Amino acid sequence: MKLRYNSEIISGSVFLVAAVVLWLLIPSQINTLETSEINAQTVPRIVIGGMGIFSFCLLLQGLFTLPKHEVVVTRAALTSDKFRKELRSIVYAVIFLAYLVAITFAGFLISTILLTVAILIFYGARRWYYYAIPLAMVGIVYIIFKMLLRVSLP
Amino acid sequence: MDLFFAGLDTLLQWQNFLIIPIGLALGIVVGAIPGLTSDLGIILCIPLTYGMDPTMAILMLLAIYCGGTYGGSITAILINTPGTSANAATLFDGYPMAKKGEAYKALSMALFASTVGGLISAASLLFLAPQIAKITLLFGPAEYLALAVFGLSVIASVSNKSIFKGLIGACIGIFISTIGMDNISGTTRFVFGKINLMSGINLIIALIGLFAISEIMMKSQYNPRTDRKIVDAGSITKSKITREEYKRCRKPIGIGSLTGVIIGATPGTGGGLAAFIAYNQVKTTSKHPETFGEGEIEGVAASESANNGACGSTLIPMLTLGVPGDGATAILMGAFMIHGMVPGPMLFRDQGNILYAIMIGLFVVNVFMYLIGSVFTKFYAHITRIPYEILACIVLTFCIAGAYSTSNSLYDVYIIIVVGILAYFLRRMDFQLVPILLGIVLGPLAEMNFRRALILSDGSLSIFITRPISLGFLLVAVGSVLLFAWRNHRSKAKALSEAR
Known about the structure:
The structure holds 2 protein chains of 2 kinds. By secondary structure, chain A is mainly alpha-helical.
């Protein structure tokens, strides 16, 4: 399968759809009782409308005036270095999202220790002090915030 | 003049000279931690000042305020995350300088420009306070909107690659700023039934997500074995500011300091806006605007002189009129009252000697800030030598703890991660984050005053062009956008003709 694209086509399409969805959500999400023409909906309508118009312009620019990349989707492409690098970004994002689940249940200290270890493994750190320094820092931050700043971390 | 000398006499006590460095050190540390602001530093230290005399107490809090505003530049330069919102414009050139191996130079310029801006601001507070207060009183909603538009005109100069992406970014930023409860009508907007979103998305939370988390995400493809640069310890402090660079930065520091003084004295604005406007003006009037955003030392000089230039002048409306200009001055106003001083016109008459001691003390604060900063800048610069995988973990820990501490809510931690991941994908699609940031910073100011102005004028847009100050700001904004577009067009045409 052959794909021809550029970042303008992708971002223009994504934000055009987002603008349309947000525009349709305005009446339900901004339920104002104001009767004047200038009300709580005015500025959101201007910026969402603006987002839609500029996204449409960006899409047209991407489709008709700017050069496009061509990608042929094959089994070999899925094992290429480039694809692996992209996959690393997704794994990184998944680590962050997993952290959000962990901090909800395990609190700051345990979840941040796990996050630190996960990131260091992700980067392939082998030396012991690569683990010791950030882990000590988690403890120090916890103590500073809890004792000195009186912020009770979860 | 008698009050001046009485103030000097009150100031010249050893306790004051001891408390100022302590306040500055605390402020710099608080400012340098993303998520913690000088506002929080002042709040935390107010109880410590109960037993002090008023001069000593206020000087300590002012030192935290000034130190925090300077301290935010350290992380902006070293890890692409402004410690406070006032340092957001320092990112443009500070971080690219650090990436080029000029972190020490950028930090030194940030310190120098902050000190000069702070000293000019202190002078304005001491000598021009009543006159400046009178001018800023002429500002109404139309003028504030024009000021916000003036700030938003920066988008044109930071969206070189695609103006449409810049404009979409600004729309995203302003949209984010509208989330939560509307300040005028009390209507909730885009909260999707979540109580935590009622108070909106905090600026500092958005900043951490947009810059710190997305920056860490951008390094997801970093390979320590092949991408690590071994930086020699000696080379870190080698790149010092040259005499020629000091000379080049005189104009940016002048523009930045004056912009800081004027914007800072205008209630409801603050150092962040001043820094953006100063940066844009310096870039627009520069002979080499194409170098801005690529690690131009003049950019760091402009933004840092502007945000510290606003520090002293934000006290002008508070001290002369009893109107706090921003969050930090509102807290300082509370501290004044705790120590038996009620800000306003009567303060000069009733407690003039203390007031003059504080105003002269602001000079001392800035001088001490330079001395302390000079000693520690060398150490800060070595942060760039830490292996990235260790630095990423430490930065993440501070960001998460800082985000949580903003309102003691896990919700803010969720927001920084989600905003960070989204910002990463935007960056991968060649979007600049600065227009989004500008939208978040200036959106509330623009919206509130746009609506107020239209209510005052019965819906007529003519209010923005019939008031001279508003018209002036709008003309300068349009002028700077046109000037930038013309220069951009000229440089592209030149490049095309050279290619042929």
